[in-house]
């Protein structure tokens, strides 16, 4: 059975921070097409601050739950704009059901992601089709929950693959939430930046599962 310890989650956060630096310009470019051009910058500010505090919060956190909660609090406080509270809430809620645990099963990881996605839905109140990160997360999560016939890593890969398709599916949509909403029909033909960053961040988890 696949068991994920606290170090797994620490490594994931480190790799997410690295990814954000690598993809900063790409994400910012997407956001300059239909938003205010700061999505990559916002995530970079949040993950840089998380990296500054990472060793401290890891040493202070008694379990995976509090570690992720602290990561989420930093993102929520530091990432400007709408994606900060959404991703911050994702990590806070992802840890909510694993209190007292220093390792979790793969099934528990799925539950953590489901809780995180539910937090995004509750906070942002976007639906599939509104041209947001929800268009990647929700169909992805459905695949993750349903593909019980697959082995853990294949199952997680199917999740990320579906999220990637979900991000592509935002291109022809008219934005109904967030800043892009103001563009109306002019948002058509552009990929939503948050949908793009969300599958990329989840792919970091996949890459760590493969290690
Ligand atoms: P801001 O738009 O405030 O500048 P960012 O650029 O960091 O913040 O993030 C923009 C992304 O946030 C969008 O591409 C979209 O995916 C996501 N987003 C915005 N509003 C919502 C919402 N209500 N629900 C879900 N996701 C949202
Ligand atoms: Mg923006
Ligand atoms: Mg902004």
Layout of helices and strands:
Blueprint (H helix, E strand, L loop, with lengths): L2 E3 H29 L4 H22 L3 H15 L4 H12 L8 E3 H19 L9 H13 L5 H17 L24 H18 L1
Antiparallel strand pairs: 1-2
The structure holds adenosine-5'-diphosphate and magnesium ion (MG) (2 copies).
Overview of this protein structure:
Strands 1-2 form a two-stranded antiparallel sheet. It is mainly α and 211 residues long. It is globular. The model has no long low-confidence stretch (mean pLDDT 97). The protein has a single domain, classed as Serine Threonine Protein Phosphatase 5, Tetratricopeptide repeat (Alpha Horseshoe). The longest helix has 29 residues. The protein is built from eight helices and two strands. Adenosine-5'-diphosphate binds next to helix 2, helix 4, helix 5 and helix 8. The site of adenosine-5'-diphosphate (ADP) has 24 residues, from helix 2, helix 4, helix 5 and helix 8.
Question: Would you kindly provide a brief summary of this structure?
Answer:
The protein is mainly alpha-helical and 211 residues long. The chain is built from 8 helices and 2 strands; from the N terminus they run E-H-H-H-H-E-H-H-H-H. The protein has a single domain (3-210), classed as Serine Threonine Protein Phosphatase 5, Tetratricopeptide repeat (Alpha Horseshoe).
């Amino acid at each position: 059975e696949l068991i994920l310890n606290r170090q797994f989650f620490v490594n994931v956060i480190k790799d997410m921070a690295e990814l954000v630096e690598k993809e900063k310009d790409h994400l910012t470019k997407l956001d300059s097409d239909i938003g205010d051009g700061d999505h990559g910058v916002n995530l970079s500010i949040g993950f840089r601050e998380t990296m500054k505090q990472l060793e401290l919060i890891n040493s202070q956190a008694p379990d995976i739950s509090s570690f992720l909660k602290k990561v989420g609090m930093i993102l929520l406080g530091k990432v400007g704009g709408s994606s900060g509270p959404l991703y911050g809430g994702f990590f806070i809620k992802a840890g909510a059901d694993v209190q007292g645990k220093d390792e979790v099963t793969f099934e528990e990881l799925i539950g953590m992601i489901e809780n995180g996605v539910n937090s995004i839905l509750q906070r942002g109140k976007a639906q599939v089709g509104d041209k947001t990160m929800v268009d990647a997360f929700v169909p992805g999560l459905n695949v993750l929950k349903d593909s019980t016939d697959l082995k853990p890593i294949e199952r997680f890969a199917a999740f990320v693959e579906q999220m990637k398709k979900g991000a592509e599916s935002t291109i022809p949509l008219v934005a109904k939430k967030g800043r892009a909403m103001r563009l109306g029909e002019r948002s058509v033909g552009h990929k939503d930046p948050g949908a793009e960053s969300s599958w990329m961040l989840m792919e970091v988890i996949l890459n760590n599962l493969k290690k």
